[in-house]
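S2.1 Query sequence (3-oxoacyl-[acyl-carrier-protein] synthase 2)
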Amino acid sequence: MRRVVITGIGAVTPLGNTAQETMTNLREGKNGIAPISRFDANETGITVAGEVKDFDPTLYMAKKDVKRMDMYSVYAIAAAEQALQDCGLIIDESNADRVGSMVSSGIGGMETIQNQVIRMSKKGPKRIAPLFVPMVIGNMAAANVAIKIGAKGNCSSIVTACASSTNAIGEAFRDIKHGYADVVFAGGAEATICEIGIGGFAALTALSEETDPTIASRPFDKDRDGFVMGEGSAILVLEELEHAKARAAKIYAEVAGYGSNCDAHHITSPNADGSGAGKCMLLAIDEAGIAKEEISYINAHGTSTPTNDGAETTAIKYAFGDYAYKIPVSSTKSMVGHLLGAAGAVEALACITALENDVIPPTIGLENPDETCDLDYVPGQPRQTEVNYTLSNSLGFGGHNAVLCLKKWRGN
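Output structure tokens follow.
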């Protein structure tokens, strides 16, 4: 089978408006969570989030185009443009049909939905914006990216809640591996820090009510009380190895394996026995063709919710047995919050920087470990250690599990 490598990266996240800035801050354990500034969130009972900061969309598109899109699409285009520039690929009629766009969103244009429902309520249904539908539907980040860069291959958006962008990267990997594409721009985008987004997840009792941004997202901590909403986008350029070598492209890492399955258990809670996510990790390891003991680091889904963190800990033990206690595991959601459908793509960046620099990003805010969460969660500070293979776990509402296995690039 054809090998698949990562040759370009782009991102807009709570930790930076480029992929490199984001990865540096992840590696250093910086906190991108802060008080919500976009609207008065007091009535929701939630006061902090991982907002994108000082972002200028006109660096990537004209003002009129920004107005014609929801912010989740704007974030995706910015990340994709960065990734295109980073990878150095020229897309033209000679290769456009072999370049794909797989960019997922768990929710799509939530803020546009909110604003237009308010407008309809005040002014009537005939005053709904003409572009309402193409602004909100979940495939439009993928479509807008494809239009912007000229990618005419497979263009799709996989919606599996918080596993969406990991599934997008995994399916892009399979498309290239099996010969359906040479290059795919893959990742996710989300923009849900608005009244209905925060209020909706608060009504579900899923969000942290902590007011201190330094400890609001504290995965695996005994005092955790919910996740912190994040926003943004991350896009990876996946490319067939020989295609990348032929144009002397920079290679960040290799995609070695991918797993995807379902708990078939509950609409919001993972299976407490860990079997679904555990089997999914084993699927990714099996496709990579490696032993379990070769995994150097696991980027956990690690949402900081009471239910998820214990179940994921059990899942890691299900997959690795006693070796689970020897694997460093961290949750970078402690730094950026939970980007929902875009979370897995950002966490793939965390794995890339771990592989490139032999530094494991920490779980910040973890001060009082839960007795049921008894693995090595790299609390507080980054850790220097050799990293050769990583797993990135994404677990979505509905029981969706997706896992990527990335491999250090050594030039062969």
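The chain is about 35% helix and 20% strand. Residues 258-408 form a domain with the Peroxisomal Thiolase; Chain A, domain 1 fold (CATH 3.40.47.10).
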